[in-house]
């Protein structure tokens, strides 16, 4: 199988099918509310009847009357654009269309119109212009084609469910890709409005850029730990002063997305201040939706879906977060209660000095949610609501009882929230056990993809093991892994070692440090420290006032020594990253991106200088190609040559720029880029500083073009995505400066030039960047990505320093081995086993584990035992050291490969050398086994 991302993608699909395979006998009858459907047409009708019944219009006179009255008032108001169709209501631009087309997912089934995403992505300029006219026509009129509101539903059996029931199938709706493109255009604008106006409370992290479920889980864990660490009561517990006890509730809304009333959603959007033009388009897109179900190629009749958000819709997640925004506002009024929402997954954490007080507050939160659901025609599934007591006192566990929507809910031993199982003491033992059950079949599936002499390449195995096995183990690990006990970390390590043995083919007795190093997998302790540092950096990058940021900045006293979370472990990692003791300043993330409808101006990017500019060409040829390209620009332009530098590519970043005006005058710019910094980030700092210097110059010449030369393709490729696509404050500032300059009528061209090929001005910029790296760095903020990578390097270095002395450490020292390249699977396994010290072809190893007993000795670990002698030379035990460095039978092979019969241990880092010696030893054994 070719070693490519596409091949790995196919492997992932195969593994997913193996994991979720559901066998359905052909001709399986289907049960539908007591009726039996045998024919495919009857099955399709049964499915459609079930789905349409869920998304039906529910009449509630009191709520409907109230909603219609308020809607009449709001609909009478003018849109924010005043009818001018400006700003967010302006027509879509070709730039917006071209930005969204690459986001269309290929290899997806088309909707009823049979138009695929591939068709749209490969349109030419004329077709794109026609498509843009169509999008703007529907946007301006507030109407949508009926074909965009049609869907074909394909029921897919759920794993582990009875396939004879309609409720055991997941509906997959195939809708028009044209409609999805229109949704993406509208969603980009709606997302900007949401970010700009803070329409969604910070407690809601679902489907928001840069936010994740992990953040809510981390906030929950840290909040509970801080409450436990308050002083132990000496008398009567005092709320807010003594150690707290918590009641955690996880609510379940029945069919949350499928029952949303469209008229009520429109009311909520207008209440929040979403522009009326945008709201009208969403209203038209949701109304009069119809769908048919297809079973085995047989299609049912269409049925209307009068409520709910379309399944698979691009807009649906954002619309739901806006729909539920007022629920968070209502819950904020409940004292001592914090809210955690990820889309429709809602949880509340109620605190109190006693569990009874926490229970009363939890009951108030449950009543608030039930009242909100009744007002907006939703239903809380009380029977699915979970409750858990979080307390250091075991007797509190059975003293919680809450009534939710008429159902009695009592505290359980565990609670599953957003894929993580919580226990009373936050030890996460139950969660670790569930993870083991989840990943063991995955490791078994991975084992089926390779063998001793066949299967995936090692690079593919590493990729799949990291994503398929390790990815499952590390889900939301920043929240729970730092709090897990050492014994539970051991459980995670066991599963990681099992995956490592599949990747490398190493034996079960292989030392764990050698095994994990050869597989390129981190240990659970490394993951814990890295994820804790990342979580702390993410929290510190949030805007001031965010509850997670508040927790990250706080330093409450610790009473319980064993209660550690991501904040404490993250600070330990930060201290290692800053040996001087200076605090790391985390850069605040970009909260509001540039408006997608905003014109980027007359800014063009050129990422090559022709075929002679590639890295494999001689420097002189690259320089000549660059000079020819630069000669095509106006000679009287203002030139900016910028460059970035970082020691070893990761430390003490500096940016330098040289500004050359049309009259030959030059200005030098130097800027510090941070103690921890990548070369690309240093390039961004340099360019931003140069543009700031240029725009702040009084009486600057605005009549001449500006040419910007950089030797970083990564920087130019990042900026080329446009102002709305930037995710860091530095890149956003650069685009603001570019747009400001372009607004004066100056065209700007950004040109890539090859580095270190003798371009004088580029070399001067490089020198300025190196000088800038010596500037004070303490006050320069560091971004989350840089901190995470630095934490990973630190954790890896610490782990390697702790390796025990032995054969593997002799070979690698403090380095990490890479994947074995250029060898077949059998040779790759030999390489890993020999370097790890346990080789399945070694007589000494086989005798040690009892697989080669002799009449004199059944089993021992002595290298002097006669049964352990090398069968080829009979001089000493055939340990990996003997085979690779000493065996006289392989002297010729060693001489041919490394030029000496006595190679050094470090020369065994070469995969080819070890593979050749292993093959030579096997050949010698084969000759011994062959009778004369």
From TrEMBL:
<protein>
    <submittedName>
        <fullName>RNA-directed DNA polymerase from mobile element jockey</fullName>
    </submittedName>
</protein>
<feature type="domain" description="Reverse transcriptase">
    <location>
        <begin position="137"/>
        <end position="422"/>
    </location>
</feature>
<dbReference type="GO" id="GO:0042575">
    <property type="term" value="C:DNA polymerase complex"/>
</dbReference>
<dbReference type="InterPro" id="IPR000477">
    <property type="entry name" value="RT_dom"/>
</dbReference>
<dbReference type="Pfam" id="PF00078">
    <property type="entry name" value="RVT_1"/>
</dbReference>
<dbReference type="InterPro" id="IPR043502">
    <property type="entry name" value="DNA/RNA_pol_sf"/>
</dbReference>
<dbReference type="Pfam" id="PF00075">
    <property type="entry name" value="RNase_H"/>
</dbReference>
<dbReference type="GO" id="GO:0003964">
    <property type="term" value="F:RNA-directed DNA polymerase activity"/>
</dbReference>
<keyword id="KW-0808">Transferase</keyword>
<dbReference type="InterPro" id="IPR036397">
    <property type="entry name" value="RNaseH_sf"/>
</dbReference>
<dbReference type="InterPro" id="IPR002156">
    <property type="entry name" value="RNaseH_domain"/>
</dbReference>
<dbReference type="GO" id="GO:0003676">
    <property type="term" value="F:nucleic acid binding"/>
</dbReference>
<dbReference type="InterPro" id="IPR012337">
    <property type="entry name" value="RNaseH-like_sf"/>
</dbReference>
<dbReference type="InterPro" id="IPR052560">
    <property type="entry name" value="RdDP_mobile_element"/>
</dbReference>
<keyword id="KW-0548">Nucleotidyltransferase</keyword>
<feature type="domain" description="RNase H type-1">
    <location>
        <begin position="634"/>
        <end position="774"/>
    </location>
</feature>
<dbReference type="GO" id="GO:0004523">
    <property type="term" value="F:RNA-DNA hybrid ribonuclease activity"/>
</dbReference>
<keyword id="KW-0695">RNA-directed DNA polymerase</keyword>
């Amino acid at each position: 199988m070719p070693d490519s991302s596409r091949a790995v993608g196919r492997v992932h699909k195969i593994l997913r099918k193996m994991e979720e395979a559901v066998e359905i006998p052909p001709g399986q009858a289907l049960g539908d509310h007591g009726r039996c459907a045998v024919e495919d047409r009857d099955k399709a009708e049964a499915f459609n009847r079930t789905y349409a019944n869920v998304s039906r219009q529910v009449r509630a006179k009191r709520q409907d009357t109230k909603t219609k009255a308020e809607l009449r008032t709001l609909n009478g108001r003018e849109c924010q654009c005043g009818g001018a169709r400006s700003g967010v209501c302006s027509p879509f631009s070709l730039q917006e269309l071209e930005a969204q087309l690459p986001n269309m997912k290929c290899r997806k089934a088309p909707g009823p119109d049979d138009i695929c995403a591939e068709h749209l992505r490969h349109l030419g300029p004329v077709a794109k212009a026609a498509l843009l006219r169509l999008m703007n026509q529907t946007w301006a009129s507030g109407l949508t084609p009926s074909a965009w509101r049609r869907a074909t539903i394909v029921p897919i059996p759920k794993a582990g469910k009875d396939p004879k029931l309609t409720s055991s199938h997941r509906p997959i709706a195939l809708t028009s890709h044209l409609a999805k493109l229109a949704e993406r255009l509208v969603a980009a604008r709606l997302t900007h409005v949401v970010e700009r106006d803070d329409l969604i409370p910070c407690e809601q992290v679902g489907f928001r850029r840069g936010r994740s479920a992990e953040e809510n889980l981390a906030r929950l864990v840290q909040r509970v730990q801080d409450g436990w660490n308050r002083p132990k009561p000496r008398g009567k517990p005092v709320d807010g002063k003594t150690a707290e006890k918590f009641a955690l509730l996880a609510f379940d809304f029945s069919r949350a997305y499928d029952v949303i009333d469209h008229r009520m959603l429109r009311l909520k959007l207008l209440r929040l201040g979403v522009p009326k033009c945008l709201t009208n388009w969403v209203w038209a897109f949701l109304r009069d939706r119809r769908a048919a179900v297809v079973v085995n190629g047989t299609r049912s009749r269409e049925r209307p879906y009068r409520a709910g958000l379309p399944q698979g819709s691009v807009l649906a997640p954002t619309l739901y977060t806006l729909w539920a925004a007022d629920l968070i506002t209502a819950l904020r009024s409940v004292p001592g209660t914090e809210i955690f929402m990820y889309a429709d997954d809602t949880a509340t954490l109620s605190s109190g000095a006693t569990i009874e007080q926490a229970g009363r507050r939890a009951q108030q939160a449950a009543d608030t949610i039930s009242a909100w659901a009744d007002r907006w025609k939703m239903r809380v599934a009380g029977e699915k609501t979970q409750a858990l007591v979080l307390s250091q006192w075991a007797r509190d566990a059975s003293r919680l009882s809450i009534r939710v929507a008429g159902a009695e809910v009592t505290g359980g031993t565990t609670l599953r929230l957003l894929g993580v199982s919580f226990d009373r003491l936050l030890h996460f033992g139950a969660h670790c056990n569930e993870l083991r059950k989840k990943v063991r079949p995955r490791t078994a599936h991975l084992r089926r993809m390779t063998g001793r002499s066949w299967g995936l390449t090692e690079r593919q195995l590493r990729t799949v093991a990291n994503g398929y096995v390790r990815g499952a183990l590390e889900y939301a690990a920043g929240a729970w892994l730092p709090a897990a006990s050492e014994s539970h970390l051991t459980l995670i390590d066991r599963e990681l070692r099992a995956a490592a043995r599949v990747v490398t083919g190493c034996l079960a007795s292989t030392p764990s440090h050698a095994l994990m190093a050869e597989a390129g997998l981190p240990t659970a302790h490394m993951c814990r420290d890295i994820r804790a540092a990342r979580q702390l950096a993410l929290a510190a990058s949030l805007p001031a006032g965010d509850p997670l940021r508040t927790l990250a900045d706080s330093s409450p006293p610790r009473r319980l020594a064993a209660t550690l979370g991501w904040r404490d472990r993250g600070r330990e990692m930060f201290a290692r990253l800053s040996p001087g003791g200076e605090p790391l300043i985390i850069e605040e993330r970009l909260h509001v991106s540039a408006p997608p409808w905003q014109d980027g101006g007359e800014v063009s990017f050129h990422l090559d200088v022709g075929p002679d500019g590639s890295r494999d060409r001689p420097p002189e040829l690259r320089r000549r190609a660059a000079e020819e390209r630069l000669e095509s620009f106006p000679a009287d332009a203002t030139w900016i040559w910028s460059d970035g530098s970082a020691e070893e590519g990761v430390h003490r970043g500096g940016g330098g720029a040289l500004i050359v005006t049309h009259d030959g005058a030059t200005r030098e710019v130097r800027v510090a880029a941070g103690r921890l910094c990548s070369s690309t980030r240093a390039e961004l700092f340099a360019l931003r500083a140069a543009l700031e210097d240029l725009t702040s110059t009084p009486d600057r010449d605005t009549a001449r073009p500006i040419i910007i030369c950089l030797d970083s393709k990564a920087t130019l490729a990042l900026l080329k995505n446009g102002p709305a696509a930037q995710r860091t404050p530095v890149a956003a500032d650069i685009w603001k400066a570019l747009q400001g300059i372009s607004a004066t009528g100056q065209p700007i061209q950004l040109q890539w030039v090859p580095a270190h090929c003798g371009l004088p001005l580029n070399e001067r910029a490089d020198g300025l960047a190196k000088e800038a790296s010596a500037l004070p760095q303490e006050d320069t903020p560091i971004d989350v990505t840089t901190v995470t990578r630095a934490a990973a390097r630190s954790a890896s270095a610490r782990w390697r320093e702790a390796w025990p002395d032995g054969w593997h450490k002799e070979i690698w020292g403090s380095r990490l081995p890479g994947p074995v390249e250029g060898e077949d699977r059998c040779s790759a396994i030999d390489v890993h086993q020999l370097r790890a010290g346990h080789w399945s072809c070694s007589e000494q190893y086989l005798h040690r584990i009892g697989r080669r007993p002799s009449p004199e000795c059944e089993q021992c670990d002595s290298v002097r035992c006669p049964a352990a002698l090398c069968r080829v030379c009979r001089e000493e035990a055939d340990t990996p050291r003997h085979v690779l460095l000493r065996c006289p039978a392989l002297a010729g092979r060693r001489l041919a490969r490394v030029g000496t019969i006595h190679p050094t241990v470090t020369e065994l880092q070469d995969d080819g050398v070890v593979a050749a010696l292993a093959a030579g030893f096997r050949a010698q054994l084969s000759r011994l086994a062959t009778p004369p």
